[in-house]
Amino acid sequence: MKKVITYTEDQIAQIGALLNGIISTGVQSAKSIAVIAQILDSGTPGEIKEPEQPKKKGGEG
């Protein structure tokens, strides 16, 4: 199984807005980065089941 972390659409939109607003220096940038870190930490772990590969029969493949 593949491991994934899920986020809501609102969380991703907020991250995008914060990333677009970051400049190279300043306290506000540090605050935005801290909020992004909090959002990323709040993600929900999950798993994705991979589809089963069909078993090869004798003489195939």
Report the order of strands and helices: EHHE
The end-to-end span amounts to 25 Å
Structural class: alpha+beta
Count the E strands: 2
CA radius of gyration is 20 Å
What can be said about the biggest beta sheet?
2 strands, antiparallel
Overall, the morphology is elongated
Give the low-confidence spans. Answer: none
Percent of sequence in beta strands: 15-25%
- Mean of residue pLDDT values: 81
Per DSSP, the total helix count is 2
Name the helicity range. 40-55%
What does this structure look like?
This protein has helices at 9-21, 27-41, and strands at residues 2-6, 44-48. The chain is of the alpha+beta class. Helix 1 (9-21) packs antiparallel against helix 2 (27-41). The protein is elongated, with a radius of gyration of 20 Å. The two termini are 25 Å apart. The model has no long low-confidence stretch (mean pLDDT 81).
Which structural traits does this protein have?
single chain; 61 residues; alpha+beta; two-stranded antiparallel sheet; 2 strands
Task: State the gist of this model.
The chain is 46% helix and 16% strand.
Helices and strands in order:
Elements: E1 2-6, H1 9-21, H2 27-41, E2 44-48
Antiparallel strand pairs: 1-2
Helix pairs in contact: 1-2
